[in-house]
Design brief:
12 helices, globular, 2 domains, Rossmann fold, about 50% helix, 6-phosphogluconate dehydrogenase C-terminal fold, six-stranded parallel beta sheet, homodimer, disordered C terminus
Chain lengths: ~300, ~300
């Protein structure tokens, strides 16, 4: 646990729309940072909200997002991307003049497109994406240290209010994150490689195991510690969130998938033709990439992640 | 750390041939179990042996395997599979009558074939495979608790000495492992799915990242915490060991790769045609598999693993 830099209250009142694992982590991190005066938790599910209430994660709880954002100078959308249009349409009329609206969605071009025309004049929208999360759904699995030492990317456009970008940079920094700005399309391309393709492949290989006969499937699970285990964590991630990611970053994901297929064919061919030299050379190169990840200190698990 | 059951010394003297991460872990676990009187560490690399000596992991150190096995009633081969034939040929003449020889190789049909005709009369050979390991090479990265709660598979054939199988079952149990017997071809098939295919895919996807322009590659590493990180751990594994695994379990790996390719094509097609229902259904099923892994308690990291 890194001690969080203390400082003044940066926002009087924050509303968090979508209160699953990530929304609850944002709430916890904001509380810990003492950068926000008070919090409203909002989720369409009354059950989720009542669980959040039991955990005492906010000052107010509202199922209706339009009510939730009233009086908020900060609104953080933490729901699946397929819900964004409806949420922005609903909160538009009740947003406070001067409020900053941001989000945590994994794909940013589509978010910029959805926000276009849906943010009322006088309200500032800044698309954002923290590179952190865990495969467990629900507010009880959030963690105040989830963003500690992780990157939090902002993808402002040419017309985005600079003051809003700077205030969010300070805010998420107070929550422990390393905040960086990035061009929206470059974000979607890099994330297709670092996050979307790995999840797609993990879902696929776990699906392959699911198709085996039940006796073999049981043994695959029992002996999963040999490597398969690492994939099941990713493949245990929220189905709705990931469906939305793939549908909304289609081009970049399909391009990375194409490149991946070519590399896999190379290895497949080497195995078929007993070409040990090609395999060994390939494996030596990938070891260098691992070294880079360890050196960049991005090899540590998230707090609260399932042992991985 | 599970307390290890104490008991009598089961073997007077053990020789461990190949003293990398896994060989050193076997030595450490045997020491902790107090089931072996004394240990000889053997490795073709004088450098590896001198590092093992600095760590005081054995009573004797020998680069020559034929010398190392003299007087040993237990020999554990912990080197890559491509070295097995030469090692067995070398130690054949110096093995002690009644000794038990076993190994830790990830593929078992080929090991049985190599051992055939190379084990002298009066010596008992039992192929084995602990489902545990880490991506870091070298004796300094071994861990005495590596086998704690992990499966250790033995694949005896019809002519394998039953007394030897039972003694190894007790021995590895004393090292914390859950020891199970399995038919050799079934082992190779299940492991192709749980370990070999995941490693191949991890190597492949990390290779795809390696091919990107260097600026993008740097960002892929920096933002690896979104999922890519989980693959780099596997892709950082020993190149020689894994080259040998793929060359020696070719048919099973190619079959699983074929099935994986079919599943991946299904997902690829669903993305291309905006078929969210297929994606969501697929992702819900894989979540069940993750639940199975967590329930089987195989979701915890290895001691000494790089934060994963």
């Amino acid at each position: 646990m890194t001690p969080v830099e203390q400082g003044p209250v940066l926002f009087e009142h924050a509303a968090i729309i979508g209160f699953g694992n990530l929304g609850s982590s944002v709430a916890r991190a904001l509380r810990k940072s003492a950068a926000v005066g008070s919090l409203t938790a909002s989720d369409l599910s009354a059950d989720v909200l009542s669980r959040a209430k039991t955990l005492d994660l906010a000052e107010r709880y509202e199922t209706d997002p339009a009510t939730a954002v009233q009086g908020a100078d900060l609104v953080v959308i933490c729901s699946p991307i397929s819900s964004y249009a409806a949420i922005l349409d609903a909160i538009g009329p009740t947003l406070t003049e001067g409020a900053i609206v941001t989000d945590i969605g994994s794909v940013k071009r589509v978010v910029a497109d959805i926000a276009e025309g849906r943010i009322p004049e006088g309200v500032r929208f800044v698309p954002g994406h923290p590179i952190a999360g865990s495969e467990k759904s629900g507010p009880e699995f959030g963690h105040e240290d989830l963003f500690d030492g992780r990157y939090w990317i902002l993808t402002p456009g040419e017309t985005t209010d600079r003051d809003a970008v700077e205030r969010l940079t300070v805010l998420w920094g107070r929550c422990g994150a390393i905040v960086e700005e990035m061009a929206v399309d470059y974000h979607d391309k890099v994330l297709a490689m670092t996050s979307h393709l790995p999840h797609l492949i993990a879902y696929s290989i776990v699906g392959t195991a699911f198709d085996l006969q039940s006796s073999e499937q049981r043994d695959v699970i029992r002996f999963s510690a040999g490597g398969f285990r690492d994939f099941t964590r990713l493949a245990g991630s929220d189905p709705i969130m990931w469906r939305d990611v793939f549908l909304n970053n289609k081009e970049a994901v399909l391009e990375m998938l194409q490149r991946f297929g070519e590399d896999l064919s190379l290895l497949q061919r080497a195995i078929r033709w007993d070409d040990g030299d090609t395999l060994e050379k390939f494996f030596r190169e990938t070891r260098e990439v691992r070294r880079g990840v360890v050196e960049a200190k991005q090899d540590k698990p998230y707090p609260g992640a399932d042992g991985d």
